[in-house]
Design a protein that fits this description.
Length: about 100
């Protein structure tokens, strides 16, 4: 297992092991939007190409989306309660492999 990978046990047997790899992510903005808290998180494009369902969060968002352009990747994440993150901070994020 390389640096940045974690092995998570989910249930019984080898088929239940889940390998997760950390993704470098930075919070671009953290703002209150209507009755939700919205984070815009920049990703390193080469570290995640989708789909959104492969992402694992330290604090699960209420809802979210994954966007890309030619040279950028980002997440838009909405939380019902303030997740406590600030713009410029590293964002804890993993992908399943």
């Amino acid at each position: 297992m390389s640096h940045g990978e974690a092995l998570i046990h989910r249930g019984e047997g080898l088929n239940s092991l889940l390998i997760m790899t950390s993704i470098h992510a930075t919070i671009l903005s953290a703002e209150k939007f209507r009755d939700l808290y919205r984070l815009i998180v920049q990703l390193v494009p080469s570290e995640f190409v989708g789909p959104f369902e492969r992402l694992r969060f330290k604090k699960n968002p209420y809802c979210g989306s994954f966007g890309t352009s030619v040279d950028k990747s980002w997440l838009t994440l909405d939380y019902r309660k303030d997740p406590g993150f600030k713009a410029g901070e590293a964002f804890p994020l993993w992908r399943t492999d």
